[in-house]
Amino acid sequence: MTTWTLAARAHKMNPSVIREILKVTEKPGIISFAGGLPSPRTFPVEAMLEATQRVLTQDGRAALQYAASEGYGPLRDWVAHDLKKQGMDIHADQVLITTGSQQGLDLVAKILIDAGSRILVETPTYLGALQAFTPMEPTVVSVDSDHSGVLAEDLRAKAGLGAERARFIYLLPNFQNPTGRTMSEARRAAVSAAAMETGVPVIEDNPYGDLWFDSAPPPSLTSRNPDGCVYLGSFSKILAPGLRLGYVVAPKALYPKLLQAKQAADLHTPSFNQRIVAEVLKDGFIDRHVPTIRALYHQQCNAMLAALDREMAGLDFRFNRPAGGMFLWARLPEGIDAVKLLPQAVDRNVAFVPGAAFYADHGDPRTLRLSFVTASVDQINTGVAALAEAIRHYQA
CATH for 45-285, among 1.20.140.10, 3.90.105.20, 3.40.640.10, 3.90.180.10? Predict the structure, then answer.
C-alpha cells in the first residue's frame, strides 16, 4: 500500500474560507454579499472578442507558442507607462507579468520568507495573502490599524532589529480588502518614513486603486521609496478575472529572483491572454472603460449604504463608508458572532463573509465583510433587509 508523506508546509495550507462560503451561496435564490468577484456587467466582451480575432489573425502562431517568462513586451511597456501616470518612475524591465496578482504574493513569499521569518500585516488583512505566506512558515505579526490603515508608530515598534527585523510589511493602501478603507496622504507619508527608518521593505498590493468613486487615492507608497517596495497590480478588477493577469514591479536588485521563482512555478503566464489584453489596451480603451465601472460600483455602494442606514436603525450595527473599491466593513452588535449568524442569514437567502478569518491573530468575531458590486440595487435592498431580520432574530 502506497503511503504519501506530506511536507511540513503542506500542513500549513488551509482552504479559503471565502471559497467555502461561496459554495453555500450556490443555493438558488441566495443574494450574495460574500464574494470578492467583479461584476460580470463590467466585462468588455465585445472588445475582447475583437482583440482575440486580431491576435489570431495577425500573429496567431506566436500567440499560441511558449513565450518569455518576463511577459509580453508590449504589455510590460504599457504597465510601466501607466504607472508613470501615477508618479512611479519605473522601467519595463522591472515589470514581471504574473498569473494573477495572487501569484505575485506567492513569488514574494518564496523568495523573502524563511521558516520563522518575521513579517508584518495590517489588522485585518487580505486572506489570500495570509494563505500565500503561511506555507513558508513565517511569524506573522499584526500591526495596529485604524480607519486610515496601519499606525506608523506601531510599525516602528514591531519592525524588529538585526536578524529579527521583519522581512517586509504587506499593505493594501487603496480600498483595502476586506475593510474598504483607504490610507490617507498623511498616513502614507508617515508609514513610508517609518518603513525607511526601520529598513523594513514594503509589499504594496493595489488591485482596487482604479476603482475610486469621486477622486483618485493619494500617490502610491512605491512612488515614495521605489528601492524599498515591491508593487503588485492586476487586470482582474478592470478587465476580466478569468484571464488571470497581474504583474509585479520590483527593484532591479530583487527582480532576478522573482523571475527565477516564476520560471519554476509555471514558465510563463499564458502568452495568448497577454497579447489579447495588450491589444485591448493599446488604443486607450481602459481610459474609456474604467469610468463605467466606477459609476456602476458607486451606485451600488450608495444603495447598500442607504439600505444599511434604513434597515439597521435601532441596532448597534456599525459600518464604514468606502470611497471606492468593492467592499465595506461592518461590526455586529455586542454578543453576536458573525460565524454563527451566517447560517441564519443564509436561511433568509442572504450571505456575507465573517470577518475573523481576515486577522492574522485574535480575529474579531463581530466583524463581517459585505461586497456591493455583484448584486443589483433591488437585491441589495432585499438582502440588507434580510440581514437585519437575521440580526434581530439572533438577539431575540
Answer: 3.40.640.10
